[in-house]
Amino acid sequence: MSQDLEPETTQKPTLLLVDDDPTFCGVLEQALSKRGFEVHAATDVMSGIKVAETVEPEYAVIDLRIGQESGLVLVKRLHELDANTRIVMLTGFASIATAVEAIKLGAVHYLAKPADTDEIVAALHKDQGDELVEIKEKPLSVRRLEWEHLQKIIVEHGGNISAAARALGMHRRTLQRKLEKRPVKD
Q1: Which of 27, 39, 42, 142 could form a disulfide with 47, with the two C-beta atoms 3.0–4.6 Å apart?
Q2: What pLDDT band is residue 166 in, cutting at 50, 70 and 90?
């Protein structure tokens, strides 16, 4: 008597991708799928949380700024659901304050956009820091220091722009205008 044996299936690792730019999200979803991940994409924080609660992803790539919301909320929730989820924070609004908070909340790495798919996959698997990372010769510019300070105050106030503006002694709209600008490159 012969038995039909089912072929052994290799299950792809699950990955949650959350970014508010649908085009970028779609392109990155395809690229990560080609690299062997079962990708579940979302374009807002609440959808990302719902997907995470259903799928329980092994990996996650989360944008820092998702619409008007902070991706840090999602990083925290993912870490609460499973402390072993390997999370990479991806952002076009990189700052020291948000990088530190992302790592404290459970991210394993923090990448500034533009980052290519290979860099993202490498970051998902990176377990240790790089002691050979380049140290810049000149200090941060005054404009970059201002950006870093604004980010720090916003994080201290839980992402609440109005509370951060009050703490900074400036009008909320002024702070929002400053935040709409990309961070200064040094």
Answers
A1: 42
A2: very high
- Tell me the C-alpha distance between 137 and 119, whole Å: 25
pLDDT by residue (tens digit) across 45-66? 999 999 999 999 999 999 988 8
| Total domains in the fold of the chain | 2
68 within some domain = yes
> Which residues, in sequence order, are bridge partners of residue 38?
14
Alpha-carbon distance 179 to 94, whole Å? 12
Q: How far apart are CA 152 and CA 100, in angstroms?
A: 10
Token pair 């709209």 in the structure block, residue: 173
Q: What is the Cα–Cα distance from 22 to 13, expressed in whole angstroms?
A: 22
Task: Give the pLDDT confidence of 65-108 residue by residue, as tens digits.
Answer: 888 888 999 999 999 999 999 999 998 777 778 888 888 999 99
Of the candidates 127, 128, 125, 96, the one whose C-alpha atom is nearest the C-alpha of residue 112 is 96
Same domain, 80 and 168: no
Q: What are phi and psi of 104, to 5 degrees?
A: -60, -35
Element holding 168 (H helix, E strand): helix 161-168
Same-domain check for residues 91 and 47: yes
Q: How far apart are CA 91 and CA 41, in angstroms?
A: 16
Tokens read off for 57: 């992803």
